[in-house]
Amino acid sequence: MSDELSPMEKLVVQAMQELGSTSEEKKKTADDIAKRCNRPKGLVTNALVTLSQKNMIKRVAREKAAGYYLMKA
Fold first, then answer.
1. How far apart are alpha carbons 28 and 70 in whole angstroms?
2. Helix ranges, the chain (H)
3. Maximum distance among all alpha carbons in the chain?
4. How far apart are alpha carbons 10 and 25 in whole angstroms?
5. Distance between alpha carbon 58 and the CA centroid of its chain, in Å?
């Protein structure tokens, strides 16, 4: 499945793994992930949307910022 990912998506998945964002209890915000990737938040957010569409990550809506975690680490 990782062959279908863009370089940015791979970077986001790697950052999420490094952050330990592998379950709903350990979800991270786009800001957290962008800081880890050292990339603009807009690019990271776009990658999060496409990863979510590919069912690789889960988005959890919260009162402030949404949280994200990997479905299959």
1. 10
2. 7-19, 30-37, 41-53
3. 34
4. 22
5. 8
Q: How far is CA 60 from the centre of its chain?
A: 11
Residue with tokens 């990912």: 5
Do residues 30 and 68 make contact, with C-beta atoms less than 8 angstroms apart?
yes
Q: What is the pLDDT along the chain (73 residues), one digit of tens a residue?
A: 456 899 999 999 999 999 999 999 999 999 999 999 999 999 999 999 999 999 999 999 988 899 999 996 4
Domain residue ranges of the chain, discontinuous segments joined by + = 2-70
Residue recorded with tokens 């350990």:
26
Q: Domain 2-70 carries which CATH code?
A: 1.10.10.10
